[in-house]
Amino acid sequence: MSNDLRLTIAEIIKRPLFQHAQVVAGHRGLSRPVRWVHVLETADTGQFLNGGELILSTGLGFGEEQEKRLAYLTELIRRKAVGLCIELGRYIPSIPEDMLELANHHQFPLLVFHQPVRFVDITQDLHEHLIHAQLQALRNLEAYSRSLQQLSLQAAGTPKLLQHFQVAVQTQVFYYAPDGTTQFAPVVPHDVAIEMSDVMRSHFSELDSGEAGVRLLSLSATRQLAYQPVMAMGHVLAYVGIVLFERSPDEYLLLTLDNTVSAMAQILMRKMFVEEQALATENRLFDDLIANRSIPEEQMRSLLGITGSGKASTYHLIILSFEKKKNLAEDSLPPHDLTAIFRSLLTRHRFRPFIRCMGHRFYFLLIEQQPLIDSRRTLEKAFRDVKRIMTQMLGVDAQIWMGVSRAGKRLSDAGRHLAEAEQALAFYHESSSPFFADLGLFRLLFHVPNEPVLKVFISDYLGLLLAHDQAHGSSLVHTLRVYLDANLSKQEAAEKLYIHRQTLYHRLEKIEEILGEDYTATQNRICLEIALRARDWLSKEERHH
């Protein structure tokens, strides 16, 4: 299969109708591909050009007038025409020096016919060739798409797919993974591979994630890369591209690249899912942790495949909880299938991830591959990407919560840190932070047994108020909660409750009557706030169970 879509000016001047044509300027632009042929005599009709046209003219519109001819040639160059053919004769007997200089400066091919020619014959000949080439390219593209499907069914790997791509486009192609892995087809010399890999590593590391589509990267005046990201759920898995020498990518190349990228995404996703199926030990590990079964240090290290007795790496335990949109399409990706994508993403953030999806939850054990300077900032950045992918899959109105444990060192303590992540998740809305370290006083609740201490504590401090609300259908407990959260600001509390300030005064008087006039004193206020949050926590626990 060959790409026959391009018809360059260098190829055109070899055709019979151009046997008396002479290139008089812009020789370095002869490799430009011609998209169409157009007769144009005046500069003011340049607006009808789309770019890529070879222009035919007799000089009727500009003749030998310097201002007109330079304006005409400048307009063609500005409109991205690829060359100009002029029939010398009555209107312009020879090409003036100023036109030659302008054409050479812009490497814009300027051809002359020394004998009269029929423009209609030229346009018919070239248009027939261009249309035939486009139809052939479409047939080639259809055949290439079918061959890609066959490769996918054969479970071909990336090297085989890349070689197939190279045969189709007949130029140098490459594959680059964010971990620095590069592949070239055909194989390039070692020093060239290192140079190209360094250029791509530098360029791709600065790109924004999640942006699809073809991009160009100029390497020199004559060489550039056309590349496209291989993506899954907004996450970049790799890049596939073409090295172009003295040419720009045409439609055939871009469509072939796009088809290759789609096939590559399927192959990489399938490979990732197969790898996920092989990680059964991780599932057993999380099942034990979630069941609160104690695991000795050596057994944990064995389960995770950690050998040696070197210094323990820092790790973090995270729980991500989510609720789907009710009208989520049935054929959308199941949540657990995102495990492979999350693994790729978190590895890129320099964690060694262990992941388990159960119901509407993801459990993450992230081991720092190397000590991080600011692990919290890295975690925040990584889980912004995780949430972006989740939102893309579940919809913008999906609800996503997180709980993050303190950093751990001893793997045998992982169960305790998982419980910290659980508590941080439970108090996510209270602390406005997913980190257990930010819970403040509410961390103490973690160490208080639910029965009977917490219920007795809640009853002692809120029992009378709860009884009043139940007997009278009032909302004094909620009013107290908002008032304390507003730091005793009556104006702010009234606004948050959407009531008049006078109504709030009446409620606060009733609360004072029930709880006592010193309920806002520091000691009592702390106890009330803990009781309010403990009550919310217990109600959530009861709903879950």
Features:
single chain; about 550 residues; alpha+beta; Udp-n-acetylmuramoylalanyl-d-glutamate--2,6- Diaminopimelate Ligase, Chain: A, domain 1; Beta-Lactamase; Alpha-Beta Plaits; 4 domains; five-stranded antiparallel sheet; 14 strands; about 50% helix; PucR_C-HTH_dom; PucR_C-HTH_sf; CdaR-like_regulators
Describe this structure in words.
The protein has 545 residues and is α+β, with helices and mostly antiparallel strands. It has 4 domains: 9-130, Udp-n-acetylmuramoylalanyl-d-glutamate--2,6- Diaminopimelate Ligase, Chain: A, domain 1; 154-271, Dynein light chain 2a, cytoplasmic (Beta-Lactamase, 2-Layer Sandwich), CATH 3.30.450.30; 312-445, Alpha-Beta Plaits; 451-542, no CATH class. It contains 18 helices and 14 strands. It has helices at 9-12, 66-78, 97-105, 119-153, 158-169, 190-204, 251-277, 280-290, 297-303, 339-348, 375-394, 414-426, 428-431, 450-472, 476-485, 490-497, 501-515, 522-544; strands spanning 21-25, 36-39, 53-57, 83-87, 110-113, 173-176, 182-185, 215-218, 223-232, 235-245, 315-323, 351-358, 361-368, 399-404. The strands form 3 sheets. Strands 1-5-4-3-2 form a 5-stranded mixed β-sheet, with helices on both faces. Strand 4, helix 3 (97-105) and strand 5 (110-113) form a beta-alpha-beta unit. It starts with 8 loop residues before the first helix and ends with a helix. The model has no long low-confidence stretch (mean pLDDT 82).
